[in-house]
């Protein structure tokens, strides 16, 4: 029996990176997946790859997580195509790293609109149906920035701290209705965003090596390693895990000093 057989899942920001890996993993485990993505062409290509490689059901829906109406539209499209949603993964996010005193108001609003408001928009769109049915799992992709601070990354960690607070508050609020809300905090994961950051440095190869040297396992994580944690939280194997966060960082956040 596949671990997510007959479940319907919506994943935001699922066109590439961690979101795409989660969509692939869910499909392999039997879920019908809806890729809610701003870049619709990327999402369509990924959806077609999922169907071809897994034989599963996949649908791409253009979605701007900063707009509640757009997220609600994605939920409606998912329900029309596959039925009631069992799982939501709030994965869409952006990096906004600024100096606090030179950051613009637009930088602040852009960060929170995607990284925190976008998570709430997803939760608000699916919770009524999940509460009515008395079942559901929401998985929010946070970050180790939610509890560790790296200078120069403001205000991104502020938003990610908010994601953990939102996860805990909603998890407790709806626990009596059997709706679980959890988070995953990835550390360094080999996504395009990570490669982009390395490539922006004066010496990309040295920047990459410096990152690897910081890791207890001397490598960074793969998107698939985050995806399998999401599969677990979304499945019926985790019925008593709620309002918490699982860290996927190879032990980096447990390290006292380098």
From TrEMBL:
This is Dihydroanticapsin 7-dehydrogenase. CDD domains: SDR_c. Pfam families: adh_short_C2. It comes from Paraburkholderia haematera. InterPro entries: KR_dom, NAD(P)-bd_dom_sf, Sc_DH/Rdtase_CS, SDR_fam. GO terms for molecular function: oxidoreductase activity. SMART domains: PKS_KR. Belongs to the short-chain dehydrogenases/reductases (SDR) family. Keywords: Oxidoreductase. Its EC number is 1.1.1.385.
């Amino acid at each position: 029996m596949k671990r997510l057989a007959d479940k319907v899942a919506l994943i935001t920001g699922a066109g590439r990176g961690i979101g795409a890996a989660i969509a692939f993993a869910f499909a392999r485990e039997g879920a019908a997946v809806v890729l809610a993505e701003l870049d619709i062409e990327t999402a369509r290509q990924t959806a077609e790859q999922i169907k071809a490689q897994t034989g599963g059901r996949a649908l791409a829906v253009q979605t701007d997580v900063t707009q509640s109406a757009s997220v609600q539209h994605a939920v409606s499209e998912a329900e029309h195509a596959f039925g009631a949603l069992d799982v939501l993964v709030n994965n869409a996010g952006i990096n906004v790293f600024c100096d606090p005193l030179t950051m613009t108001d637009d930088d602040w609003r852009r960060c929170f609109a995607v990284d925190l408001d976008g998570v709430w928009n997803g939760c608000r769109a699916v919770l009524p149906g999940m509460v009515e049915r008395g079942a559901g799992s929401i998985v929010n992709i946070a970050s180790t920035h939610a509890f560790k601070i790296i200078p120069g990354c403001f205000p991104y960690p502020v938003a990610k701290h908010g994601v953990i607070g939102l996860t805990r508050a909603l998890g407790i609020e709806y626990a009596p209705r059997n709706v679980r809300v959890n988070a995953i905090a990835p550390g360094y994961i080999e996504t395009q965003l990570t490669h982009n950051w390395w490539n922006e440095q004066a010496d990309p190869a040295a920047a990459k090596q410096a990152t690897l040297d910081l890791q207890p396992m001397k490598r960074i994580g793969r998107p698939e390693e985050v995806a399998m944690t999401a599969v677990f939280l979304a499945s019926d194997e985790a019925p008593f895990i709620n309002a918490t966060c699982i860290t996927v960082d190879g032990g980096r956040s447990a390290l006292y000093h380098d």
